[in-house]
Design a protein that fits this description.
Helix content is 35%, strand content 24%. It contains 14 helices and 16 strands. The strands form two sheets. Strands 7, 8, 9, 10, 11, 12, 13, 14, 15 and 16 form a ten-stranded mixed sheet that branches. Strands 3-2-1-4-5-6 form a six-stranded parallel sheet, sandwiched between helices. The two termini are 44 Å apart. Bound molecules: L-homoserine.
Length: 406
Amino acid sequence: MNVAIMGFGVVGSGVAELITKNSDSIMKNSNVSLKVTRILDIRDFPGNPFEGLMTKSFEDILNDDTIDIVVETMGGVKPAFDFVSSCLKKGKHVVSSNKELVATKGYELLQLARENNVNFLFEASVGGGIPIIRPISRCLAGNQISEIAGILNGTSNFILTKMIVDGMSFEQALKLAQDKGYAEKDPTADVEGFDALRKICILASLAFGNHVYPDGIFTEGISKITLDDVAYAESCDSVIKLIAKTKKLQNGKILVMVSPCFIKNDSMLSGVNGVFNACLVRGDATGDVLMYGKGAGKLATASAVVGDVIDCAVNDDKRKFFGWNEPKENMLADYLESETALYIRAEKADKEKINSAFGNIDFLTREGAAEDEIAFITPVMKEGELRNLLDSIGLNVISCIRVADY
Ligand code: HSE
């Protein structure tokens, strides 16, 4: 079966390499023969083994009836959305690794796939090489999923790990992540949580059945985390991780948010270090399931893409039942409605006032703290109520981090 690739960057070139390298084992395991026959990119690749397949014209792929499956590894929404839409309308299956495209246009593209009886699959859009989309949509389909919590951005996890393990400052660790090529040139999407947000929106849409758009979702990154916060976390047997989570609240609304969290050392998520990702899914039958592995990288991400390509080839004549419906009005919860505990670091605080507001608090300690610095963890309450209480005692809060319960 002939495959075209749109976008010959890190992931796209990995897909070409993997399909070519493993064609025999793919044939043996799945009984499909895959061949990359066209690659679209505006750049030239002189001397590249796939140079002969390159084109700069999208029409060469769209109008080639011998191409059954198109891989989109271009990134961004423009022109990827137009290209993918056109391919689906032409009756070609599309496999994408593009989280921005799926998070913002997933519902429209899934509809187009339905209308044209083809598949639009995107395992690689979340968690790189880690199987997440298919396990949620297939293997765990017998469960009612109540919650998903993921460490879904490798760059920010690398930075936090360096701060925790090596005592590096945020700035030093970010510089190292950039030197190692993990962080994007503009690392804002990584460190401010927007990359993780797109990924959790995809998982929330899949788990709860209606499209969740990233716009307006509460998102906090790691750029304000300091080594002082890391030390306080350590003092209560915890580490700080950037957690992207979605949860069905008791009122039926869906909570989606991204923020740093204190994670207890005995949690399955606490040992996820460096650029690794992990995703915890809470099902009513399975309890907590953790999927862990490389969340980015050329061949790891290509592995997820090629898995989807094989799935399309095996299901060439039919569309798989897969995806989600249109967004529903008022389906999302305000993050202030969710229950949580908060770690608070403040200065010039009155311990009596804190105790009378929250009940008897165990205050945290760290070496080298200023005399007027105070840190504590609140009881679990609705976040809105916690914030009202904090306001009512007039605390000068320096740092506020949620405390997770998984
Ligand atoms: N910049 C992303 C990360 C790449 O660091 O996880 C994978 O989506």
